[in-house]
Amino acid sequence: MPLDSQAEAFLKQLEALGGPALNEMEPAAAREAAAALGELGGPPEPVARVEDRTIPGPAGEIPVRIYTPEGGGPFPAVVYFHGGGWVIGSPDTVDATCALLTNRAGAVVVSVDYRLAPEHKFPAAVDDCYAATQWVAANAAALNVDAARLAVT
Question: What is the pTM of this model?
Fold first, then answer.
């Protein structure tokens, strides 16, 4: 399948800047670069409600951002794990994506700020993601979520 022409143009612009690839950077620099890329999308579209909170995790509290759509619910839910190879990314870098998903899918989206490597060795991130998914299922009623309609991405 050919690459989307807009995606191809964007990648060529990045290459023209001459900087190193994300996988060639130290984690801190790669995180800064990913955050800067996330800002290019502009501010997130409005949703009915956004809440930053923490939930219990296997090694302490896990920060999450909960997006709720307009309507009465109970809603389906998406537990959202930002990309970044377990090393970069955060709920801030996918804020616009999660708001869009909330509105288009009519779903509560729970964006998980799992622990990142290399500071936190495998399987720390996976453990956090699993704990967050269990928490959403166990707290479905309080989140106005239909526990039978739960997805992860």
Answer: 0.91
